[in-house]
Amino acid sequence: MIVVTDTSVVLNLCWLREERLLPAIYEQVLAPEAVRFEFERKTASDPRFSGLHFPAFILVASPAFIPPVLAANPDFDLGETAALALALERGIADVLIDEACGRAIAHSLGLRVSGLLGVLIEARRRRLIPELRPLLDSITNGARFWISTPLRHRVLLLVGENLDN
To answer: What pTM was estimated for this model as a whole?
Structure first.
């Protein structure tokens, strides 16, 4: 399966030191230049992400055209816009996006959407990681990736891990 990714998923997997999960799950991972730019801007400006490097296995390929439905959306950043445009242009049905607005638009365009939690769930199911809870704790406490309590519980139940308080 080929997937197009937005910045958040790659950035947070790199923060967890688990970027290796992407090529273990997906045949090929693509990202537009805007995503690489956002990644590099974040790592240069936010101390949480200092020292992280954009993974070399991700193929950078920007879309030739941004459809008006994406260009006109004020809630999108350049990475989300370019990622969805690239997926549509290349006929790639799967995208990795964490932001709610981007996920909603991707669904409305007929794309299959996953995100950081989806990648981690799939990695746990494939036994690529021994436990999910420590990664959730780490990403919420250290990188300040927000996960609601009900969503956290659903994720842990999906992978057969006990709920925590």
So the answer is: 0.91
Average pLDDT value for residue range 103-119:
93
Using one digit for the tens of pLDDT, what is the confidence trace for 112-152? 999 999 999 999 999 999 999 999 999 998 888 889 889 99
Question: 4 - beta bridge partners?
Answer: 30, 95
Q: Is 23 domain-assigned?
A: yes
Cβ proximity of 129 and 123 under 8 Å: yes
Q: Is residue 139 part of a domain?
A: no
Domain count, the chain: 1
The domain that holds 36 is classified in CATH as 3.40.50.1010
Q: Decide if 9 contacts 35 (C-beta within 8 A).
A: no
Can you tell me the distance from the alpha carbon of 147 to that of 159, in angstroms, rounded to the nearest whole number?
16
Residue 114 pairs in a beta bridge with 96
Q: Are 133 and 156 in contact (CB under 8 A)?
A: yes
Contact of 78 with 6, CB cutoff 8 Å: no
